[in-house]
Design goal:
Shape: flat
Strand order of the largest sheet: 3-4-5-6
Strand content: 5-15%
Number of helices: 13
Number of strands: 6
Distance between the termini: 70 Å
Helix content: 40-55%
Low-confidence stretches: 335-353, 375-382
Order of helices and strands: EHEHHHHHHHHEEEEHHHH
Largest sheet: 4 strands, antiparallel
Mean pLDDT: 81
Number of domains: 4
Structural class: alpha+beta
Bound molecules: zinc ion
Length: 382
């Protein structure tokens, strides 16, 4: 994380984690995963009460409206055995109710699906009879597959542009661009009814085109003619870092054709990865010494070739060097065409050669969860 605290956390209801987050990252925002809340709610509530509780979880409303509806829900549906769980949930309401979490920085996520997805991917194909080495190999294989997918997606994003006239397609990633485009398309629904100057900010009242009913305000700050900051009542920019249709309506009104810097979060752009070195220290493919060596050379060569290509003489020197090198290689090691350039099978790698040290499996630990059921033995006749 480069020494930076995360801005937000999504966890299950674990109390020690909640305490640790509050202590170690006091400025980070913390919410509870809706998947766990849903599972617990199904255990404690049924029928109409469960439906009402779900509305309190997901519906965006004002905090006082939530309090009023919670009182009504509790008085009508309260049963003694549910009381403890409901009291605990009420105490934690700022961590799960949409009335409190809306507009906070969770990038549109409500559950810890990312880490659970990773868990389940690594758990699949695990077998309790596997040795420790098998487990590590399985883990490396999973990680290498995920990194390869990521590298492919990076390549696709950096080498292609969606077929559109909208200039934003050139700097947002493909996935985010689809969301941005959807917001741009919605501007036909809105009109600006009023513009007011208050202190430093200029406020634009946004209304529906059909009934002219005011929905909210977009507040903009300028440096001369330059738009420096923008804040919308819907809080989409604050919570997802994606400019909403209201902001685009104001941009259209101001005749700004290019999305200003204050509406572009670096994390959603194609340049987001520029902060990382282009040299990958981790393997994208299955591990082999030759591929490691090849990647090291390729990363050095990439930069050297760009430098050489700046001058014709240098380029010629590099071409001569490679031609000589290939000729020498052919004389000493036979034909170049016979050399494998793809990844070597894992059993050729040194890590699989027997070494002096013995690696033993760990002591057997009884896992948590369901005890494997014993099958009933069939009764023998007689
Ligand atoms: Zn908005």
């Amino acid at each position: 994380m480069g020494g930076k605290h995360p801005r937000s956390f999504i966890t299950d209801g674990d109390l020690s984690m909640a305490n640790a987050i509050a202590k170690v990252c006091p400025d980070a925002d913390h919410r509870l995963c809706t998947w766990y809340i849903e599972e617990n709610a199904k255990r404690h509530l049924h029928g109409d009460a469960l439906t009402k509780f779900r509305r309190l979880v997901y519906e965006v409303m004002k905090a006082d409206e939530f309090e009023r509806r919670w009182c009504a829900f509790k008085n009508r549906d309260n049963v003694p055995e549910k009381e403890l769980w409901l009291a605990m949930m009420y105490a934690l309401r700022e961590k799960w109710a949409a009335a409190y979490t809306d507009g906070r920085y969770f990038l549109g996520m409500r559950s810890n699906q990312r880490s659970e997805g990773l868990n389940s991917r690594i758990h699949s194909h695990l077998d309790r009879k596997m040795s420790l080495i098998d487990v590590i190999e399985h883990f490396m294989c999973c990680v290498s597959r995920m990194r390869r997918n990521e590298a492919e997606m990076d390549a696709r994003a950096s080498q292609s542009v969606p077929f559109t006239k909208i200039s934003a397609a050139r700097f947002f990633t493909h996935v985010i661009f689809r969301e941005v485009r959807a917001e741009i398309r919605k501007i036909c629904k809105w009109v600006i009814l009023e513009v007011r100057q208050l202190d430093e900010a200029r406020r634009y009242s946004i209304a529906s085109k059909y009934d002219h009913k005011v929905h909210g305000e977009v507040s903009c700050s300028f440096d001369g003619a330059l738009l420096m900051g923008v804040k919308c009542y819907c809080q989409m920019m604050d919570s997802k870092e994606i400019p909403c249709s209201h902001i685009f309506t104001v941009l259209k009104y101001l005749r700004i054709d290019i999305i200003p810097q204050c509406c572009v979060a670096v994390r959603w752009t194609l340049q987001a990865k520029a902060a990382f070195p282009s040299i990958r220290t981790a393997n994208v493919h299955e591990w082999s010494e030759q591929m490691d060596q090849y990647r090291l050379l390729r990363n050095i060569a990439n930069e050297a070739l760009v430098k050489a290509s700046l001058s014709f003489e240098r380029s010629q020197q590099v071409i001569d060097f490679f031609e000589n090198f290939m000729r020498e290689g052919a004389e000493n090691e036979g034909s170049v065409n016979e050399t494998t350039l793809g990844p070597l099978p894992a059993h050729f790698s040194a890590s699989n050669q027997p070494s002096g040290e013995r690696v033993l499996d760990p002591h057997k630990i009884v896992p948590k969860g369901r005890i494997p059921s014993k099958r009933l033995k069939p009764c023998r006749p007689g």
